DNA sequence: TTGAAAGCGCTAACAC
DNA sequence: GTGTTAGCGCTTTCAA
């Protein structure tokens, strides 16, 4: 018995079994209203009996869209984006869609290529965390009335799409304010890549907060690895008016900083307080547990997918309709890296 | 100018422009040998001139396979699998394939559904980290002569597929041996889920190594969160002959354990040594840096993809050919959580 | 409410 | 070497 050789039943076989025309079957499949209930019943049972399944390729060929959504992120191995991808796929599945993913490797050209490839596959919609720093005509050409694009985490430059973003600026302000409330006046801000939307927003937040408190800003970027951070710490600690607190722009920087300070036996938070942007699983495990600005990749993905599925279902993209802009809040997770605090502020360590 | 309305050029238009038949164009596209070079040139320039692109849907309809590979993992938000996914997608792209991903959420039924869905989309091949604990007929039916499946990290129960696995057992043995070399005799082994192939292998390795040294095994599973680990530590430390070292079965367990020991002011490695299975980014950042058994998700993905692409290209699956079994080694990354060591053993901390 | 026929863009099979 | 024809399974007319 070579059941694996059996081809899938076609709409024609269903039609024959139900003794109707193929069109009637097609109508039943796409639940078109004008089919008599009795006919519909007959067709439906024939479908079940034969185990008939729609052939996507044929539908595609006739100009339909594949029940697939695309997801492009800068780096799929990054925990944050991986978490987004996971949620996106879960929701896509729940809606009967599959998920095509791609890493852009933070490269604008690669990102465009992947997006075009996906579009040419007639996917139903695209979710994208862009690495584009400026708009391009190629990007413009992608946006078609029947191809919804939702930007998340970062807006698509020069394109009127739906977007789900995080309150990076407000989050950074809150972090810096927290440090100020602990009496800190010389608060440094460190990180690496500067040309990323989210990081820039955080820097803005830091700057605004410092200025509004009449404090001098102290920003160092380009700290790519632990060695860079070691050097920064050495020189910072040697300064006459050394910083007493650090706002770290991302989770790599904050964890590396903590490690370097431990290495150099600088006590945290007594001699140097830290707030990091981005919470991470081990933030509560390191010593001392890090106070961080939490942004939820799950929420980000959820909201973006909700938007995208809406667009797909309604058939209206941001081109006809007003584009939606959703801003997601951050939350300051207070642990122990910022010094003395009221007990009720302590986050659960589990 | 509404260039976005323009439909893609078809093979017929190319044929007309090149003044040849459609078949010749088709032959050029699929680089069939029997086309005169001069004709080929003409067709090629027509293709470029028109910006012609193959229509996958039409090829699919004719029974071809989509240039897509599928990837199913238990949990896409897990750093290890995310890293695998990233590498898989990179290699797929380099070979002109796109990547369809799905999380099985460690659920056998969901995994089967996703696999069947992917298969029904006529993807070229499937890469899978299975959560299946036993074979099933549905699984059998998936394996067709033209649908290669490669299992990685864990073998597919009851199915003769290619597989790329990690030397979990040997890795665990090495970890335990390392502890023994530091003079430890009472070595505990802790972790959570027990019904996972990889974890079982590690437990086997631990057991074998302990037995061959005539030491008593001391295994505790089901430690799901930090609280469970706290309790385990309390009771373990209270024992008359308390363990002096722990082999942690995965990275969550090892990092949580370290945190609990720090909390309880148990000195690592002086009072308790630790080796964890699975290296992780922050292993060198925690205090003390953890000695771990490193397994490379990148290698795992690379080897699996190499195998899969081979199968796709050759058109021979593990059904006609002998299935390949590749075992990847682990590496013990010696840091500071196992006590005194020779200087040359210290891994770079960066 | 239903059905017949005409393709969607491509390739396999067979002519020339 | 090259061209012609006949579908792949479906949906979109259009007619009944």
Structural account:
- 2 copies of one chain form a homodimer.
- Chain A is an alpha/beta fold and 350 residues long.
- Helices cover 41% and strands 16% of the residues of chain A.
- Chain A has 12 helices and 12 strands.
- In chain A, α1 (11-18) crosses α2, α1 packs across α3 and α8 (168-181) packs parallel to α9.
- The longest helix of chain A has 18 residues, at 297-314.
- Residues 342-350 of chain A have low confidence and may be disordered.
- Chains A and B meet through α4, α5, β2, α6 and α11 of A and α4, α5, β2, α6 and α11 of B.
- Chain A binds a DNA duplex (16 and 16 nucleotides) through residues 8, 10-12, 15, 20-24, 26-27, 29-30, 34-36, 39, 54-55, 57-64.
Unreliable parts of chain A = 342-350
Overall morphology of chain A = elongated
Largest sheet of chain A: 6 strands, parallel
User: Looking at the chains present, what oligomeric state does this protein adopt?
Assistant: homodimer
Distance between the termini of chain A: 55 Å
- Please give the count of helices of chain A: 12
In what order do the strands lie side by side in the largest sheet of chain A? 2-1-3-4-5-11
Overall mean confidence score, pLDDT of chain A: 91
Largest interface: A-B, 53 and 53 residues
**What structural class do helix, strand and pairing data of chain A support?**
alpha/beta
Counted beta strands of chain A: 12
Strand content of chain A: 15-25%
Rg of chain A (CA only): 26 Å
Secondary-structure element series of chain A: HHHHEHEHEHEEHEHEHEHEEHEE
- Could you estimate the helical fraction of the residues of chain A in percent? 40-55%
């Amino acid at each position: 018995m070579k059941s694996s050789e059996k081809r899938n039943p076609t709409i024609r076989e269903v039609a024959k079994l139900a003794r109707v025309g193929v069109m009637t079957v097609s109508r039943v499949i796409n639940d078109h209203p004008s089919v008599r209930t009795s006919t519909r019943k007959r067709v439906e049972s024939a479908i079940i009996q034969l185990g008939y399944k729609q052939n996507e390729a044929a539908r595609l060929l006739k100009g339909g869209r594949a029940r697939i959504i695309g997801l492009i992120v800068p780096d799929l191995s990054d925990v944050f984006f991986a978490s987004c991808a996971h949620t996106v796929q879960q929701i896509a599945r729940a809606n009967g869609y599959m998920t095509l993913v791609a890493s852009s490797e933070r490269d604008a050209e690669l990102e465009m290529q992947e997006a075009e490839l996906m579009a040419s596959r007639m996917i139903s919609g695209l979710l994208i965390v862009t690495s584009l720093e400026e708009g391009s005509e190629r990007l413009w050409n992608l946006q078609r009335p029947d191809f919804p694009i939702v930007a998340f985490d970062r807006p698509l430059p020069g394109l009127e799409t739906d977007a789900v973003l995080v309150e990076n600026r407000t989050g950074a302000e809150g972090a810096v304010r927290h440090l100020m409330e602990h009496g800190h006046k010389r608060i440094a801000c460190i990180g690496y890549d500067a040309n990323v939307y989210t990081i820039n927003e955080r820097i803005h937040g830091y700057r605004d907060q410092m200025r509004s408190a009449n404090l001098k800003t102290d920003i160092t970027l380009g700290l790519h690895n632990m060695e860079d951070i070691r050097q920064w710490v050495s020189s910072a600690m040697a300064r006459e008016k050394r910083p007493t607190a650090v706002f770290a722009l991302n989770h790599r920087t904050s964890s590396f900083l903590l490690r370097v300070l431990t290495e150099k036996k600088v006590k945290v938070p007594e001699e140097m307080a830290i707030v990091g942007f981005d919470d991470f699983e081990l933030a509560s495990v390191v010593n001392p547990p890090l106070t961080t600005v939490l942004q939820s990749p799950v929420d980000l993905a959820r909201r973006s997918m909700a938007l995208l599925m809406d667009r797909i279902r309604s058939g209206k993209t941001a081109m006809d309709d007003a584009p939606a802009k959703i801003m997601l809040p951050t939350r300051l997770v207070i642990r122990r890296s910022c010094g003395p605090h009221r007990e009720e502020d302590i986050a659960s360590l589990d």
